[in-house]
C-alpha cells in the first residue's frame, strides 16, 4: 500500500475570508470620490468673507458647481499645532463631530493676518516661525516653516464635501428638480450608493443622501510615513494603487493576513512623516469609515546629459501625497509640525491626553 501523500498546510488556509469585509471597490463613497477626481477642482475661498477673533480665522469656501457654501476655520494651537475645520455653513441638520477624543478644549494662540498677494491671505503665529498661506482660487493652504513649505492642503484639488439634502421621498416628489453635482438617474444612484447602499444582507438607508468628505495633503521632502493603525503591514506605510487604500474601520478580525492593508481591529487616524531634520503628524479627527491613499514622488536630480547645463543644477525634492476620504462627518484635521519626533508625540498626547496623567 502506497504511503499516503503528505497534506500541504498553508497559513493562507487559516486566513480570514476577505469577502465578508468591504474593500475599496465595494465602498460607494470611494467610487464617488474617485469619479469626482477626474474633474477640475470647483472650490474657491471667498477671502472677502474673512473674520478673525481670539480663537480662529473663518472664511467661506464655495463650490462653483453646486453653489453650496462651506465654512472654513483655522486655529493656531499652543505647541506648534494648526487645526483646520471645514463644515457646511448652513447644513440641514448638525453634522456629526467626534466627542471625547479631545479631553479638553485646546489652548489657542491668536493668528495674525499678514499682507498677502491679491487672491491670498497669510496667517502667522505670534512667534512668526509658522505661517499659513491661503490661496483663493483654486482653494489651497500651504503651511510654511521658516520660509519652507512643509505641507500643502488641496494642492491636488481633492477637496470633496457632500452636502446634506432633503429627504429622499420629499425630493422624489418634486418635479423637474435640477442636480448640479450628481447624476440622479436610477442606475447611477444605485451604483454610487447615493440614497441606499447594500453589502451582503445589510442595507444602509441614507435619509439625507450621501455625506462623505475628502481632502489631500502634500508632504514636501517626505518619503517615510508611519501610523494609521491597525494593519498587519510593514512598519513604513507603502504606496497604494487603484482600489488598494488603507482602510480605517473598527473591526475584530480573526486569522488576518500579514502584509495586507485591510483593517484588523482599531481605527486610529493618526499619521507620521519623517525626513532628515523634521518630523510632522496629521491627525484626521473622524470616527466614520475612512480610506487613506498614499503616493510618493521620489526626488529627481537632473543631469547635464538630460536637460542641459541650466537644469544640471536643479533638483526636485521628493513629495508624498496623502488622500483622506471618510464616509461622513466634517473635515477636522490637526497638523502637528514637530519639528522633532519627540515634539510630535508631545503634541499628539497634548491633544488626546494619552500618557499625560
UniProtKB/TrEMBL annotation:
Domain of life: Eukaryota
Entry's Gene Ontology BP terms: carbohydrate metabolic process; N-glycan processing
UniProt xrefs under Gene3D superfamilies: glycosyl hydrolase (family 31)
Domain Glycoside hydrolase family 31 N-terminal: 73-292
GO molecular function: alpha-1,4-glucosidase activity; carbohydrate binding
InterPro entries hit by this protein: Gal_mutarotase_sf_dom, Glyco_hydro_31_N_dom
Name this protein carries in UniProt: Glucosidase alpha, neutral C
Species this chain originates from: Papio anubis
Gene: GANC
Amino acid at each position: 500500500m502506497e504511503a499516503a501523500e503528505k497534506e500541504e498546510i498553508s497559513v493562507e488556509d487559516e486566513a480570514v475570508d476577505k469577502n465578508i469585509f468591504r474593500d475599496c471597490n465595494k465602498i460607494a463613497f470611494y467610487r464617488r470620490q474617485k469619479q469626482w477626481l477626474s474633474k477640475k477642482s470647483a472650490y474657491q475661498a471667498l477671502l472677502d468673507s474673512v473674520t478673525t477673533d481670539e480663537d480662529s480665522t473663518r472664511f467661506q469656501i464655495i463650490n462653483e458647481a453646486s453653489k453650496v457654501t462651506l465654512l472654513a476655520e483655522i486655529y493656531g494651537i499652543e505647541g506648534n499645532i494648526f487645526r483646520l475645520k471645514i463644515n457646511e455653513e448652513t447644513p440641514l441638520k448638525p453634522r456629526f463631530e467626534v466627542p471625547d477624543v479631545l479631553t479638553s478644549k485646546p489652548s489657542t494662540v491668536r493668528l495674525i493676518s499678514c499682507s498677502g498677494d491679491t487672491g491670498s491671505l497669510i496667517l502667522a503665529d505670534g512667534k512668526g516661525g509658522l505661517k499659513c498661506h491661503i490661496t483663493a482660487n483654486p482653494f489651497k493652504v500651504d503651511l510654511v516653516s521658516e520660509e519652507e513649505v512643509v505641507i500643502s492642503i488641496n494642492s491636488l484639488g481633492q477637496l470633496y464635501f457632500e452636502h446634506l439634502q432633503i429627504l429622499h421621498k420629499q425630493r422624489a416628489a418634486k418635479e423637474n428638480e435640477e442636480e448640479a453635482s450628481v447624476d440622479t438617474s436610477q442606475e447611477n444612484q444605485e451604483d454610487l450608493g447615493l440614497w441606499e447602499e447594500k453589502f451582503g444582507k445589510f442595507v444602509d438607508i441614507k435619509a439625507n443622501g450621501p455625506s462623505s468628505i475628502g481632502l489631500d495633503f502634500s508632504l514636501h521632502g517626505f518619503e517615510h510615513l508611519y501610523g494609521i493603525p491597525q494593519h498587519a503591514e510593514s512598519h513604513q506605510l507603502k504606496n497604494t494603487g487603484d482600489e488598494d487604500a488603507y482602510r480605517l474601520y473598527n473591526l475584530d478580525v480573526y486569522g488576518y493576513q500579514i502584509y495586507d492593508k485591510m483593517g484588523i481591529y482599531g481605527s486610529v487616524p493618526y499619521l507620521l512623516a519623517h525626513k532628515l531634520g523634521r518630523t510632522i503628524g496629521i491627525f484626521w479627527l473622524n470616527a466614520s469609515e475612512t480610506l487613506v491613499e498614499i503616493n510618493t514622488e521620489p526626488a529627481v536630480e537632473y543631469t547635464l546629459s538630460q536637460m542641459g547645463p541650466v537644469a544640471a543644477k536643479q533638483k526636485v525634492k521628493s513629495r508624498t501625497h496623502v488622500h483622506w476620504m471618510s464616509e461622513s462627518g466634517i473635515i477636522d484635521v490637526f497638523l502637528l509640525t514637530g519639528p522633532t519626533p519627540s515634539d510630535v508625540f508631545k503634541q499628539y498626547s497634548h491633544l488626546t491626553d494619552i500618557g499625560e496623567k
